[in-house]
Amino acid sequence: MLIESPPTATVLYVENGVGFGGAVISLRTCLEHVDQDRYRSVLLHSLKDEKFASFDGIAETAHILTSVPRSILKTEISIPLNLKKS
Q1: pLDDT means over runs of 10, the chain (86 residues)
Q2: Which residues lie closer than 8 Å to 3 by C-beta, 6 or more apart?
Q3: Whole-model pTM over 0.70
Q4: Which of 4, 27, 43, 79 is 20 to 30 Å from 18 by CA-CA measure?
Q5: Domain presence at residue 42
Q6: Is residue 80 one of the residues assigned to a domain?
């Protein structure tokens, strides 16, 4: 009797932080425990940092360009809300 292996699913993770810190390290730790025979992990990240090489063998990675300049991301933005009572 031939036993078929379960289907492989691709899971996309998007990381758009401005630094390589706890969130990214926690994601890497989680991905280290993913069953790679059942799941293909793909990580898109907006930070161009050589530390993402630490995901080699765990997930396919790709750097994506952001449409907002980093200088704006590091600036506090205040948006006034004009709420009217009905």
Answers
A1: 74 88 93 93 89 92 75 60 54
A2: none
A3: no
A4: 79
A5: yes
A6: no
